[in-house]
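Lab notes, practical 5.
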Amino acid sequence: MSRARGWRRLLPWLVTLACFAYLYGRLEGAAALEGRRLGPYLAAVFERISWAHWLALMVPYCVVFLLVDSLVVWRVLGWFNARLRYADVLPIRASAYILSLVNEQVSKGAIALYLSRRDGIPAWEVASSMLFIMFCEFYYLLGWATLGVLLQWERFPAVFHVLPWLALATAAFFALFHLFFSGRLGWGGAVRERPLFRAFRNAGVRHYAATLALRSPVMLAAVVVYALALRLFGVTVSFGEMLGYLPVIFFGAATPGPMHSVAIVLWVLLFPERPGEMITFGFLQHNFFVVFNAAMGLLFLRRASRELFPPAA
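Output from the prediction step:
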């Protein structure tokens, strides 16, 4: 048992190391073909990019993501917990991005704790809404990724062809899941009535569908932004092609474990003729998004802290 547990802990690190070794080998090979060492080769990639144009794409995209993400949190809280102003939810969601640098689930837990202390909403009930959002996020990413694989079936490695079957299996699971929490299966009442599952007890299919629909404009915006940003790196793809690639990469990047590295490798597998540009693009897009969101959170942190810990009278 301990040996198996040790392998489970070691495997993500081995996969990550294998991904970085593959990327390093591709970079070394591409640099050698141009008669350069690795450092000058990567420096040349950075020099060719118009960073002003890149920032003009990425900064508005991150802002739009924050606005839509806050909208989803505000709407779900309104359904299952309390009527709050959107302007009061935005600083909480933004501030939680700082914790997302460590773990997205921790940031959702911080939102639950924050609302419990500030607005007196029972913490477990807010946690239920955050769990509902994470549940919907999985189906949102899987749904778009499945569409992406179907649109670009031949371009993806065969391992990604399992996604449509995974989508079918999770659709069947959702049907049973919803029947259980709506009380139609008639058993498991003690589990169903726990405060942590309050949102699922009260949720109808329309709530799940509305949550997916509210978040979907961000995916469409990302397709446009990433397609335009990729052109700055010397690679031209249509918006239709990016609609096939990007959801699969997002799904991989959101999967726990070493999939962040796998998602970056996928850029190189899709565009093998430009390894330097694609590795740079993959690292920059993901890391800038995460770090800039955390920076926006810092702008709201003072207000959030003041609301959570008001000064003594």
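Observations recorded by the TA: The CA atoms of residues 76 and 207 lie 8 Å apart. The mean pLDDT is 84.
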